[in-house]
Amino acid sequence: MIYYDVIISKSGLKIPLFSDGRPMHSKYDPEKEAETLISGINRSDYFLVLGLGGGYHIKSLLKKYPCTSITVLENSKEDADFLIESIPCTKEIAEKPNVRICYPENLTETILNSFIPAAYNSFETVQNKPWCLFNAQTTSSLSEKISTAMQLISADVSTQSHFGRQWTKNIIQNLKFICNSKKITLPANKTAAVIAAGPTLDKKIDILKKRRNDFYIIATDTANKILLRHKISPDAVFSVDGQFVSINHFLMQQGQSENPSSPLYIFELTANHNAVKKLYKSGSDIIFTISGHPLELLAREISPEAFFTSDSSSGTVTIAAVDFALKTGFTKIEVYGADFSYFAGKTYAAGTYLDDIYSIKQKKTSSQQTAFSALMYRTELIKLSEEKYTTKVLDSYQKAFEKWVKQNDAECFIEDSVYKIKADSRKKRNSFELKKFDYERFLKALKEKAQNDYSGTTEKLLSDPYVKALLPLIAWLKMRNPSEKNFAEWVKLAFSHIVRYTV
Predict the structure, then answer these.
(1) What's the CA gap between 310 and 297, in Å, rounded?
(2) Which residues pair with 81 in a beta bridge?
(3) DSSP of 380-423, one letter per residue?
(4) Cα within 13 Å of Cα(361), Cβ side
(5) Rg, Å, the chain Cα set
(6) Among 132, 146, 121, 119, residue whose Cα is nearest residue 48
(7) Which of 257, 432, 447, 487 is the most buried (most CB within 10 A)?
(8) CA distances from 458 to 385, 425, 498 (A)
(9) In this structure, what DSSP letter does residue 388 have?
């Protein structure tokens, strides 16, 4: 602990003493000292306050900006508990709904979980000088922790700003197609072969053909066309891509083979609605999985048995497909084409939809190979060997895959470019039933929410699951309509946007 006692100031208020005997606040009037400190602090939606102490500086900050969100960093939980038990003002601060206390070891995680760019426009740090001087070593490492959190938040908000509207639209429109209950039974005694579209898949096609009866083949959307062109019909096809271009994974050109038997199509709820609609009209069997999008979580809250939960948080369809195989009872899983790299000058195995697009667009001065080279060199390459290169993004996908294996206590090794996974047989769930989604209830609630008069603190608004569900859409709106609107105004605009353009 950095605190060892509490004394009474001249104004009659309790103040904590550091272990070297120095007080954290003024011995005369800690409230007046706090007002002087906060008077020079400009307004922000979110504050990181260094030092809990007697809480007087935080009380003054809340008095000046009552609707702001505050994260307080203290040296340890033991220190915070001592302060809360000993000083009434600190206890009062700790009970505020818009105040949270964290410690150096979980600072980055706390910022990631609490600072929401769609809800907060600004981030500021408030330093208590005595606390910072006493904790000089801790203070010196804070900038790196804050920077790490902000980089991750920036990458996430960039994705949300780009896809927020498309995701929201896809989810709402896809929910209409969960109109019947479905019972699914999978042959978990077989080996689940998850097929990605990496370059090494070209060399594995013959293995898939020879051992076809041994496998339950789950194709990722990009690999679907590759298999069909080799007359291999997958048992299931998995897609998580929300972009319109993903419909190309399910379009076959004249002269190409359609699936002789319709596979089970597994779509992440944010996946492109046009692809879902095309397959639905053809009578294909479709189920939906959900991951971490707040609107998906709201849909599950309304009809919990309508969805299968699969891990697509990494954004990679390969991991989502492998996770599906594990959760449906397969104890042996082999993953083909999951290269997480460019190999022998190739970005993908031959036969993806890009072959079709680049073939049509090629000219004498711009060949198909030129287009694939541009795709490969769009970001800086990292050399792994003479034939193998990766990028920061591909490397992050590989690390996410390895993290998934570790989290699921699975055995995994690579044999001739094929991941072979052995899982716990006690996790079997090869038969499951998904129920109809209550779309009418969902639609009615959305329309009613659009009529609400939103007010109150951001924390209060975020406690409403319907408001939280719209955060990616709000990020998209804020990127395209920058203004000084408060969060309540953005919420109102998001509901209006949904009712006007989506439902």
Answers:
(1) 12
(2) none
(3) --EE-SSSEEE-HHHHHHHHHHHHHHHHTT-EEEEETTEEEEE-
(4) 12
(5) 27
(6) 146
(7) 487
(8) 51, 45, 21
(9) E
Q: Which helix (H) or strand (E) holds 449?
A: helix 439-450
Judge contact between 120 and 45, C-beta under 8 A.
Answer: yes
Question: 123 with 86: CB under 8 angstroms?
Answer: no
Task: Please say whether the beta carbons of 30 and 13 come within 8 A.
Answer: yes
User: SS3 of 121, please?
Assistant: coil
CB atoms within 10 A of CB 415: 8
The rounded distance, in Å, linking the Cα atoms of 123 and 101 is 16
What is d(CA 179, CA 83) in angstroms, rounded to the nearest whole number? 55
**b vs e for 110-135, b when ≥16 Cβ sit within 10 Å of the residue's Cβ?**
bbbebbbbbbbbebeebbbebbeebb
Q: pLDDT tens track of the chain, all 503 residues?
A: 899 999 999 999 999 999 999 999 999 999 999 999 999 999 999 999 999 999 999 999 999 999 899 999 999 999 999 999 999 999 999 999 899 999 999 999 999 999 998 999 889 999 999 999 998 888 888 888 888 888 888 888 888 888 899 999 999 999 999 988 888 889 989 999 999 989 999 999 999 999 999 999 999 998 999 999 899 999 999 998 877 677 777 775 434 455 545 899 999 999 999 999 988 888 889 999 988 889 999 999 999 999 998 876 666 899 999 999 999 989 999 999 998 887 777 887 877 766 555 555 666 566 666 665 665 566 777 888 877 878 888 888 888 888 888 888 889 999 999 999 998 765 556 678 899 999 999 989 888 888 888 777 788 888 899 999 999 999 999 988 878 788 988 999 999 888 887 77
CA gap 324, 327 in Å, rounded: 5
User: What does the block give as tokens for 357?
Assistant: 């697009």
Q: What angle do CA 233, 237, 238 make, to 5 degrees?
A: 160
- pTM of the predicted protein model: 0.81
Helix (H, G, I), strand (E, B) or coil at 411: strand
Cα-based torsion angle of the residue sequence 75, 80, 83, 84 in order, rounded to the nearest 10 degrees: 160
What is the β-pairing status of strands 264-268 and 46-50?
A: unpaired
Distance CA 346, CA 352 (A): 12
Q: How many residues does the chain have?
A: 503
Category of 55 on φ-ψ map: left (φ > 0), alpha (ψ -120 to 50) or beta: left
Q: Which amino acid is at 133?
A: L
Q: How far is CA 123 from CA 43, 85, 139, 146, 454, in A?
A: 10, 29, 17, 11, 23
CA nearest to 152, candidates 141, 144, 163: 144
**Are 29 and 10 a contacting pair, CB within 8 Å?**
yes
Closest CA to 218 of 335, 338, 309: 335
Do 450 and 500 form a contact (C-beta atoms < 8 A)? no
Q: Of 68, 64, 74, which Cα lies nearest the Cα of 96? A: 68
Taking CA 98 as the corner, what is the angle to CA 107 and CA 481, rounded to the nearest 5 degrees? 90
